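**Sequence, structure tokens**
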Amino acid sequence: MAAIVVSLASSLASTTSSSSSSLVFRKLRSTPLLGLSFAVTPLCCRRGKRMAHSLARATLGLTHPVQIDPPKISFSVKEIDVVEWKGDILAVGVTEKDMVKDENLKFQNPILKKLDSHLSGLLAEASLEEDFNGKAGQSTVLRLSGIGSKRVGLIGLGQSSSTTAAYQSLGESVAEAAKASQASNVAIVIASPEGLSAESKLRTASAIVSGTVLGTFEDNRFKSESKKSSLTSVDILGLGTGSDLEKKLKYTEDVCSGIILGKELVNSPANVLTPGVLAEEASKIASMYGDVISATILDVEQCKELKMGSYLGVAAASENPPHFIHLCYKPPSGPVKTKLALVGKGLTFDSGGYNIKTGPGCLIELMKFDMGGSAAVLGAAKALGQIKPAGVEVHFIVAACENMISGTGMRPGDIVTASNGKTIEVNNTDAEGRLTLADALVYTCNQGVEKIVDLATLTGACIVALGPSIAGVFTPSDDLAKEVMAASEVSGEKLWRMPLEESYWESMKSGVADMVNTGGRQGGAITAALFLKQFVDEKVQWMHIDMAGPVWNDKKKTATGFGISTLVEWVLKNSS
């Protein structure tokens, strides 16, 4: 071996002519699964290698996202007569019951009746001609004279308007109407606000604002041309006024900024968002909110010191090195009463490894979204950095890497050792997310937290079970389940608790290691959750959220920002 090395070194030396750079030797990439053994190979100067690598990265599509500022919309709550409000669009959220007319085909709802009288009956007439009856998803915008607004919009809320989702949809519809008519100022009113409690009015206003902001946002960073939104102000009428409402609107805008970050992260292609870039984005959050958030980014050598063999095994094949991200939020003042952690799967691209993703439905072209869990965690971090809740410390953990294919990569049949000492026989390299989460969960438990929620685009089995819009929830803690499910009811995001059937663990046993990393096809989402459970301290309350379905909107071909609103709401419920 030594003779070969000298021969190659001599050969390289003879081709470098007058170069003054001395030859150096480097360690081959190694991981704990290879026993930390090293081979020696010749290499020209490190600077040249880095430059070549940099050029290679730069030429991969020459793609650079354009910096686009998120929509800046001013929201106000007002008590003003709807017929006197002046602006571009007066949007009225109506239920099917609100659209019922009397024998003279006149509205019975007080607000609609008042508007129609000032519009000479044209609103009722137009609703009949348009066959508009208030069903969810229906909307019509009419240009009518007779009131202060240039246009009147009717937005259907369905049979009942009591859900967060219905009011978010109202905001989204208003945003679409504003885009279509290039409106700059809009007012939104609920046709039947009576009966809403003070708390319900806060939630309603919040949902409307959330829908409007997110409905206005378009991720055009990778398009050669894009239009700016014309919407600059939205007035919410009839839901009251006061400091409580204003605080709620500010809170909602902060959460939306986190959701927009999450969407942008998931939408970013893998040639742009590498593990290193994801770590940079996390560090930016810590820089922006340095009074409450700190950042620790661990490199490969530091992860080796912590014996993260499971995580490093996944990362071994990629030219882009892994980055282990740890942000920590601490309140600006007062004691910490509760310590929480949010852990997100951070595969910036998943090829499947040697068990490569192939065939229809494998979704390899969408595997940029395999870091959706980390996007939710970092989006929540950004929102909480602005909200600054008291009495709670929050750790945000992401084991970022790529799952690629190369001669240094993890093979089917290899055995990796996690940082808690447990050994894993890798019977499928495409069940890689749980391997990264294993070390992330061990690390998180060592931070002294009391509760952990992890989020991951973990299994196709969960999509089969729950479809594209519902995330599966797995936890042995009924108390934690109640907390997070209550937070999701406020956010409007759909979660469904799934069983942690311990008898299924039999399929995860290995003949040569402590466990395999994937069982059979049946109950795949459950066995994945049971695998993660092996790396959580029994004293810590833990929940796993499989968000493989709702991370992506296939119809709109864009990320959803799923999970961020629920996480922020849950943290606030745990704050003093």
Observations:
- The chain has two domains: 74-240, 249-574.
- The longest strand covers residues 338-350.
- The chain has a mean pLDDT of 90.
- The radius of gyration is 27 Å.
